[in-house]
Design goal:
6-stranded antiparallel β-sheet, Gamma-B Crystallin, domain 1, 11 strands, 5-stranded antiparallel β-sheet
C-alpha cells in the first residue's frame, strides 16, 4: 500500500498547476496581489478553509517539511487533514505531497497564487524561493 503512485495528469490554470492521480481532483487558480509576511516575498500560507478563509499558518521559505503532523495553527490544532487552501508569495513555489517524505506529488502552486485543495490531506511539502541563488527551484 505504500507504493508511490504515478502522476497521471498535470493541469495549469492562472499560476497554479495541479497534479492528479486520477482521483477526480479539481483545482482553482487565482492570481493575487499580496502583502508579504515578515517582508519576505518567499512564503506560503496554509488555510483551514477554502478560498483563504479560516485559521491560517504562514511559513517563510525555503523550507522542506517531510511530515506536517508537527505543524500547528495558532489555536494549537495540527495542519494534517485541515488544509483546504494555500496561498503563495510572489517568489514562492510550493509542492504538496500526499505522502510523507515527499512521495506522491499532489499539487504544485506557482508564485503569487491561491489554490483550493481537492481534499484536506497532505503529509509533506517543499517551499522554494524562485530566483534564489543557485537558479530555479529544485524539487525531489
Amino acid at each position: 500500500m505504500n507504493a508511490v503512485k504515478k502522476v497521471s495528469a498535470a493541469l495549469a490554470v492562472s499560476g497554479v498547476a495541479l497534479f492528479s492521480a486520477g482521483s477526480g481532483a479539481q483545482e482553482v487558480g487565482i492570481t493575487l496581489a499580496q502583502v508579504e509576511p515578515a517582508g519576505s516575498p518567499c512564503y506560503a500560507v496554509f488555510h483551514e478553509g477554502r478560498d483563504g478563509r479560516g485559521a491560517s499558518l504562514e511559513r517563510i521559505g525555503p523550507e522542506d517539511v517531510p511530515r506536517i503532523r508537527d505543524l500547528r495553527y495558532s489555536d494549537g490544532r495540527d495542519l494534517n487533514r485541515r488544509v483546504l487552501s494555500v496561498t503563495t508569495g510572489p517568489s514562492a513555489k510550493l509542492v504538496l505531497y500526499d505522502a510523507s517524505k515527499y512521495r506522491v506529488p499532489m499539487l504544485e502552486a506557482l508564485p503569487n497564487s491561491r489554490v483550493n485543495l481537492a481534499h484536506p490531506v497532505m503529509d509533506s511539502y517543499q517551499l522554494r524561493c524562485v530566483g534564489a541563488p543557485g537558479g530555479a527551484p529544485q524539487f525531489k
